[in-house]
Specification:
236 residues; alpha+beta; Phosphorylase Kinase, domain 1; 7-stranded antiparallel beta sheet; 6 helices; 30% helix; globular; SAICAR_synthetase
């Protein structure tokens, strides 16, 4: 598949068109950012790790019957993906209290959440991705009632699959965000699932093995990403 014109450049990924109007090339870069781009660094090998990690996770979800946009690895840092008509919405599931939930509600970090919480956020960097609810989504036409319910159902199915996958690897899936789009009318999981977009803790020590190491200046970011990949059996 020939990579052609740059279509979109995000904080850590670049999307390119191909000769197939229904297929794109997704490139993972070494750029690492936090706090809406206020903190930016280059971390060697990060693009390669996230690309292969994402392909591994998406393959597991496909096997579980969850449609995803990822089709194949093209190189260490590139994947071929379906072109989705994305919903401007992030679906966030939290199994353990951390991050913004603790700041908003005064909940102690590490509190187990039973059942898991579910939140919608508007994907808008300029507005700092504000929290929204189903009434906003319907009123502004971002998705239909049926699409909202299907995204929620798929998100919780992803949660069931990934919680078990990470638990078997000695990890706690604390929280994560998902983005969905339409491909030939079918709601399909897009974007990425990597340590950049989810919180992962060691089950025994609760050491952080995700992007919080970068946000909080803990160091060892790439080493943590590699450790998670090793435990899952991702071939780097």
């Amino acid at each position: 598949m020939e990579k052609r014109q740059e279509l979109y450049r995000g904080k850590a990924k670049t999307v390119y068109t191909t000769e197939d109007t229904d297929r794109l090339v997704l490139e993972f870069r070494n750029d690492t950012s936090a706090f809406d781009g206020e903190k930016i660094e280059q971390l060697d090998r990060k693009g390669m790790i996230n690309n292969k990690f994402n392909h591994f996770i998406m393959s597991k979800l496909e096997q579980a019957g969850i449609p995803t946009q990822v089709e194949q690895l093209l190189s260490d840092t590139e994947s071929l993906v379906k072109k989705l008509d994305m919903f401007p919405i992030e679906c966030v599931v939290r199994n353990v209290a951390a991050g913004s939930l603790c700041r908003r509600l005064g909940v102690e970090e590490g509190t187990d959440l039973t059942p898991p919480t579910f939140e919608f956020f508007l994907k808008n960097d300029a507005l700092h991705d504000p929290m929204i609810n189903e009434y906003h989504i319907r009123s502004f036409g971002w998705a239909t009632e049926a699409q909202i319910e299907q995204m929620k159902a798929l998100t919780f199915k992803v949660n069931d699959v990934l919680k078990q996958l990470f638990d078997d690897a000695g990890l706690i899936l604390v929280d994560y965000k998902l983005e969905f789009g339409l491909f030939n009318g079918e709601i399909t999981l897009g974007d990425e699932i990597t340590p950049d977009g989810c919180r992962l803790w060691d089950k025994a020590t609760r050491d952080k093995l995700d992007k919080d190491r970068f946000r909080q200046g803990l160091g060892g970011v790439i080493e943590a990403y590699e450790e998670v990949s090793k435990r899952l059996g991702v071939s780097l």
